[in-house]
């Protein structure tokens, strides 16, 4: 009888750790994006995203570009608004180049061009999100770019949960181009269903790989789709047991300190960690196949 309360505490603590650990930070690439889209202006997309985050007291990191209006007077005003609202402003380079095509020296120039733009802003955060998540095609290049980042006082911000939000957004654009008054509810439902699956898949991968829940980082884009569905997306996270934390807390998780320069390109940081250890390769292939099937399903649904 003596040990029973003790056992209960152990069991409680175990579940407590599992439950409390299911957390993520939202990271948004390609902002503040003022390009014309159907339905909403760039100003309206920025306003809606900020409003959705404000209502739920969620802080995110916006990885900014100079193109798509980022370096225009209104782009800078929007970046300021994101920073003043408590969000972090990270660096996604000025022109969103492909590192593999331009090499480290030109990539550095592009990074610093954007840095000059965002450095004076509130929320400035010297963290780089690589465009296309491309960190260099060979070990030598990957190491060179990491040295360059350190010299500039920068860290890199990988992603543990990549999504196909960009693809759903493309299909949404095609649909609205064809039928401007189309009902977007089915796209919204398919998109949220995609996110539920991908979140669960990466949560399970993290638990199998680490024996715990890391603080995840979810990759989303500053686009029309997310501006339209963000309140629903935040509700979905809540109802699926995901706690949203700030980006600083997320990148303090030790998984993001792991050196993966020998592994090569991988969309998911967890996937790259598993490849480095040579484990869970079946699980990774399954997740990749799941993404491909969802992409194909959507293509069939919206031509
Ligand atoms: Zn991008």
Report on the architecture of this protein.
- With 303 residues, the protein is an alpha/beta fold.
- It has a single domain (23-301), classed as Glycoside hydrolase/deacetylase (TIM Barrel, Alpha-Beta Barrel), CATH 3.20.20.370.
- Helices cover 55% and strands 11% of the residues.
- Strands 1, 2, 3, 4, 5, 6 and 7 form a 7-stranded parallel β-sheet that branches.
- Helix 2 links the parallel strand 1 and strand 2 (61-64).
- The termini are far apart.
- 37% of the residues are buried.
- The model is unreliable at 1-19 (pLDDT under 50).
- Bound molecules: zinc ion.
- Zinc ion is lined by residues 29-30, 92, 96, 131.
Bound molecules: zinc ion
Number of helices: 11
List the helices and strands in order.
Answer: HEHEHEHEHEHHEHEHHH
Distance between the termini: 65 Å
Q: Which percent band covers the strand fraction?
A: 5-15%
Number of domains: 1
Question: What's a quick, concise take on this entry?
Answer:
The chain is of the alpha/beta class and 303 residues long.
């Amino acid at each position: 009888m003596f040990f029973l309360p003790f056992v209960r505490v152990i069991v409680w603590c175990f579940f407590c750790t599992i439950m409390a650990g299911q957390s993520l930070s939202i990271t948004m690439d390609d902002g503040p994006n003022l390009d014309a889209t159907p339905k909403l202006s760039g100003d309206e997309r920025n306003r809606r995203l900020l409003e959705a985050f404000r209502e739920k007291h969620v802080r995110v990191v916006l990885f900014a570009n100079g193109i798509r209006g980022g370096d225009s007077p209104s782009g800078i005003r929007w970046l300021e608004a994101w920073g003043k609202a408590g969000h972090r402003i990270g660096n996604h380079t000025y022109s969103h180049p492909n590192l593999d095509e331009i090499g480290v020296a030109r990539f550095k120039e592009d990074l610093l061009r954007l840095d000059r733009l965002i450095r004076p802003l509130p929320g400035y955060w010297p963290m780089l999100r690589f465009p296309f998540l491309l960190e260099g095609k060979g070990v030598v290049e990957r190491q060179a770019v990491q040295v360059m980042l350190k010299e500039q006082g920068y860290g890199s911000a990988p992603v543990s949960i990549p999504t196909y939000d960009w693809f759903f957004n493309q299909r949404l654009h095609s649909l609205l181009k064809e039928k401007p008054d189309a009902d977007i509810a089915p796209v919204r439902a398919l998109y949220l269903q995609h996110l539920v699956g991908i979140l669960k898949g990466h949560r399970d991968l993290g638990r199998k790989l680490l024996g715990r829940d890391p603080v995840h980082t979810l990759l989303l884009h500053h686009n029309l789709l997310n501006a339209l569905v963000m309140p629903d997306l935040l509700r979905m996270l809540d109802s699926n047991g995901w706690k949203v934390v700030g980006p600083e807390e997320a990148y303090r998780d030790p998984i993001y300190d792991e050196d993966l320069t020998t592994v090569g390109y991988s969309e998911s940081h967890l996937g790259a960690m598993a490849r480095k250890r040579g484990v869970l390769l079946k699980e990774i292939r399954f997740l990749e196949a799941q993404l491909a099937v969802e992409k194909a399903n959507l293509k069939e649904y919206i031509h």
